[in-house]
Amino acid sequence: MRLSQAFQPTLKEIPAEAQIASHRLMLRAGLVRQTASGIYTWLPAGLRVLRRIATIVREEQDAVGGQEVLMPTLQSADLWKRSGRYDAYGPEMLRIQDRQKRELLYGPTNEEMVTDLFGSTVKSYRELPKTLYHIQWKFRDEIRPRFGVMRGREFYMKDGYSFDASYEEAGYSYFRMMLSYLRIFHRLGVKAVPMAADTGPIGGDLSHEFLVLAPTGESEVFYHHDWDLMDWGTSPLDPQKSEDLDALKEIVSKTYSATDEKHDEASWQNVPEDKRRSGRGIEVGHIFYFGTKYTEAMGVSVSGADGTAFHPHMGSYGIGVSRLVGAIIEASHDDHGIIWPDNVAPYRAAILNLRPGDESCDALCERFYQCDPEGLLYDDRSERAGVKFNDADLMGHPWQIIIGPRGAKNGMVELKRRATGERLELSVDEALAKVGLN
User: Fold this and answer.
1) What is the distance between the alpha carbons of residues 417 and 369, in angstroms, rounded to a whole number?
2) Number of helices and strands (H, E) in the chain?
3) d(Cα 333, Cα 192) in Å, to the nearest integer?
4) I want to staple 152 with a disulfide (CB 3.0 to 4.6 A). Which of 38, 180, 258, 311 is the partner?
5) Which of 289, 249, 324 lies closest to 161 in space, CA to CA?
6) pLDDT-based confidence at 253, cuts 50/70/90?
C-alpha cells in the first residue's frame, strides 16, 4: 500500500479521552475511530491486525480438533430462559424485541446457543468428543466503557465449546485447549501466563485466565518466575497425546500462578522468594470447565454405550481478539509509538523514500515495493524526512527500509529494526533477505 493513497489518518496530538497507552496509540496511528461510547470503527491498518490475530487463532484451534462455525449475533431469549441465565445475567445484556414482540438479545456469549445446536444434532456417545468454535462480534453493555478496545461494549471474540462423555475426557479437552492457547500467544509475540481464576457468571469449578503482563492491567497477579522462561513455540508437548496433557496439568499444578481473586498466601509462601513475581495483568483469554451445567439445564443428552442417556460434559474457551490488539500494544510500545510483533503487524515493513522525485530513490523504492505490494507500506508522500521517521515509529512497523539519494546511487539502503532501534547499512540483496522479501 502506498501511504499517499492509504486511509490511515494519523494524529499528532494526544486525544483527550484516551487514558492509557494503547488507546492513545490506536487513535494516533489511525487504527480505529470511536463512533459511540465503547464502540469503534476499525480502519484498514487496525483491521489488518485484527484479521492476522484471528488467523493465528483459527490455525491453532484447528490444530487441536476445533471445528469452526458461525453463530448469529442475535439470540432468542428463550434459549437463555431454558438455562436459567436470562434474568440472572444482569444489565450488561442488551435485550430487544422484534416487530412480532419476540424477545431477543445481542449475544454476550454463546453457551446456550451452542448447547442447543449440539443437542439438535448429536445423539450418541460415538459422536464425541466435539469442539466447536467461532469468531464473532459480541456486546456487553459496560456501565463505564473505557480504555478503548480494552474495555469496549462491542468486541470481537473467539469462543469455543467442547463436549465430552466424561469428566476425565473433558479434562483432556481442557488442557488440550490450554496448550493451544499457550501456542497462540507465543505466535502473537506476547507472554500470557495462565492464572487460576474465578469462573464468574459462566459457572463451573475449573478456570484459568490468560493474562498479559502490563502495568495498566486491571488484575493483580502472582506467579512463579518459571512461567517467564517457558518457550511454548518449541515445546515438545503434543496436544493429541494424553500423557503430554497430563504433563501440562502437572506443570500447571506445580508452577504457581493466580489472580488476586484466587491468590492463596499459604501456597505463595512455598514459592522460593527469588522466584516470586507479582504485578498487573490484562486478561486476553479465559477457559472454563463446567461439567453438565448447561446440558442438564437445557435437557440435552446423548445415548451411552449401554443405551442409557447421559448429559455430556462441557468446557468454554474464550479469546478476546479485539482486546488483544490493545493488550499487545500495552505490552509492546515506547515513547515513540507502537512496536508490533512480526506476526501481527499490519505491514511487515515501511519503505521510507527520503527524496521523492529523485530518480535513484524512486527506482529503488519501487524495486522493494513490487516484491510485496500487499505486505509493505510505501511512504511515498512529499513530506520531510523527520515526519516520515516519526510516523513509521508511531505505526510500529517491524522494519523500516530507509532509502536516500546517496545510498540509492550506490545500491545501498539503511534498515532499522523497530524493536531494538538497530540500524544496518546493507546492499539491496542483503536488505531483501533480512526482511524476507527475496
Assistant:
1) 18
2) 14, 23
3) 17
4) 38
5) 289
6) very high
Give the dihedral sign, CA 118/120/121/127.
positive
Q: Are residue 333 and residue 361 in the same domain, yes or no?
A: no
91: cell is 444489565
Instruction: Give whole-number Cα distances, 118 to 131, 132, 242, 302, 403, in Å.
Output: 10, 9, 25, 10, 57
- In a domain, residue 297? The reply is yes
Q: 353 and 224 share a domain? A: no
CA distance 36 to 334: 28
27-62 confidence digits (pLDDT tens) = 999 999 999 999 999 999 999 999 999 999 999 999
Report the pLDDT value the prediction gives residue 369, as an integer from 0 to 100: 97
pLDDT above 90 coverage of the chain, percent:
90
pLDDT in tens, 330-366: 999 999 999 999 999 999 999 999 999 999 999 999 9
Rounded CA-CA distance 419/398 in Å is 7
Question: E strand or H helix at 339, and its extent?
Answer: none
